[in-house]
Prior knowledge:
The structure holds two protein chains of two kinds. By secondary structure, chain A is mostly helical. Chain A has two domains: 31-113, no CATH class; 126-352, MetI-like fold, CATH 1.10.3720. Chain A has helices at residues 2-28, 46-56, 62-71, 126-161, 166-180, 183-197, 220-252, 256-263, 268-285, 288-305, 311-321, 324-352, and strands spanning 77-78, 88-89. A two-stranded antiparallel sheet of chain A has the order 1-2. Chain A is elongated, with a radius of gyration of 26 Å. Chain B has a single domain, classed as MetI-like (MetI-like fold), CATH 1.10.3720. Chain B is mainly alpha-helical. In chain B, helix 5 (106-142) packs antiparallel against helix 11. Chain B has 13 helices and two strands; from the N terminus they run H-H-H-H-E-E-H-H-H-H-H-H-H-H-H. In chain B, 39% of the residues are buried. Chain B has a two-stranded antiparallel sheet with strand order 1-2.
Amino acid sequence: MIKYTIRRLIQAVPILFGISILSFLLMTASPGGPTAALTLSPNMSARQREAVAQRLGVNDPVPVQYLRWLTGDDWMRRDTDGDGIADTSIILPLDADGDGEAEPPGNRKGVLRGDFGNSFFSNRPVIEQIKDRIPATLELGVSSLIVGLLFGVPIGIISAVGRGGIFDNVSRVGAVIFNAVPVFWLGLILILVFGSMLDLLPMGNRCPNRIGACPPLYDPIRIKHLILPTFTLATGLIAVYSRYMRAAMLDVINEDYMRTAKAKGLSNRAIWFKHGARNAFIPLATFLGPALAGLLSGAVVTERIFAWPGMGRLAVDAVVAQDFPVVMATVIFGAIATILGYLLSDILYAWIDPRIRLH
Amino acid sequence: MAAQTDAQVARLESDNRGVGISLTQLAFRRLKRDRLTLVAIGIFMTLALLSLFAPVISNQILHVDYTRTNVPNKFLGIWEREKNESNSGTLNQLHVLGTDDIGRDHLARLLYAGRISLGIGFMGAILSLTIGLAIGIITGYHGGIIDDIFNWVITTLDSIPQLFLLLIIAAVLQPGPTTLVLVFGFLGWTGTTRLIRGETFSLREREYIISARAVGASSWRVMFAHIAPNVISIAVITLAITIGNLILVESALSFLGLGVEPPTPTWGNMLTKAQSFFTSGIHLVIAPGVLITTTVLCLYIIGDGIRDAFDPTLKD
């Protein structure tokens, strides 16, 4: 299993390279270049624009830019005698702007060493912004996953057991309808009903005071804030999980061991939940990867509606502001999370079902 | 043995009737009996026609211009007339579904929005299925290095959460309807390709393909004259569901302000400011969402119905 995990992680490397190249190319292809948002101001002189472009290195050939983004430029332009001016360089010219003086040494460490550059606007390191936002997204994602499983699995089991009955039909129709409802509209309606009309739950944010630390997660006020976004994000999961669980349960329900369990005189509940559901869980594990990818995409919309300070909102805000270092970082993190999600679901699959051998 | 009489022949023929029916004929026969799918088709066609004839309906029947702003008459309710003291003799302009935050007729905008939303979904689905079909056949037929390269591309594309990829593109391009169709087409083909590639893989070894190659048919001819007709149904069956998915994605993007930009209405971007309508016009929040949900729901039901109808393993 460890061997398999390592091999899968190695396989993920070219995929991540592909994603980074793709998003980097898209970024450089944007009209006005990646610095368009910074140089938009009409008050800026041509020389100032040139200086910004120079500082961010967008005049270099695209492969060099990519290399700098990936590995940094502190090894490209170095200062060996400690006078603050670069004296040795490879790949990059020593005097890039042609003013007769050497440029200062490179200070970027590159993505491979955890440096995603600084945000164009806040000037903070992007990686710090991401670190700030991850807990909020994780909180929302994990709680949605739990709610999705907590509701989806029992609904699926009960529908399968009472196949063709009222509960089965209602839940199946419900699943199709909830798959067709746009997440953002569902969120809006929930806010409208529970936040605006009934005034029961907060309409957004992670906790009441926007500035400063939130109370700990078990605090009732935090849970109150979590309810609406969680359900908004979880309805899709509930719909999908209940359908998967129903299908998987129908597959095992006629197995011999189920009949044996019944013949032994076990209670219905023991038969369905202990003997049936445990085996029906196996195919469910494979759905964890796609579910995580779906959660990430759903989080983008949900976080926007509920003003939830997570990665998804960071991504949307960065896109609107054309803050490319942040956009790139959120995409890379999203991709890493997706790849890990798929890996996790494959490993889980083998772990639950000993018949499966990973090679 | 005596020659069979006409009656006997007729009886023999009638016994065989129903045996020689094609899969498509069988599918249509099944569809005709599938009431839920028929209802869904009916509702969907109605919505599609209303959107298609949006100009006629808004000009001739509603007598409104969907772009005309009228701030004094903003946030009119359902079935409310414009408040206007000057012309007391004639009836004031009626707004069937009220007006939005700058006084534009809501119903007319919904109809025009339907054209954009449905159009993007439909064109995007056709494009992505066509690309998926072509790449699926080529990679499945050739295998080898081409297959490996496309496999890498597919795994890469599928590893990025779809919305994130769309976000970068929205950041880079200024998206409009045409851009969105192209983007959906060039990003959404991976699923179709996987299905088609697998099917092509198994067809490649069939006798009729081998005999086609034996008589000297070129690979292009084998791929597109012999294999394509046998795999195209896989793509067609997923058409309705793909359109539904794309409508959902487009509405989400437009809602976020990263899809089709106002003043061009789509069901998604009509909801961008929805949170500020909570106190002034709830119908502005409800109507676009109901239309998206109904359309997508119908498309999913139609998709399921078509898939079942074409499923050769299902019995009548």
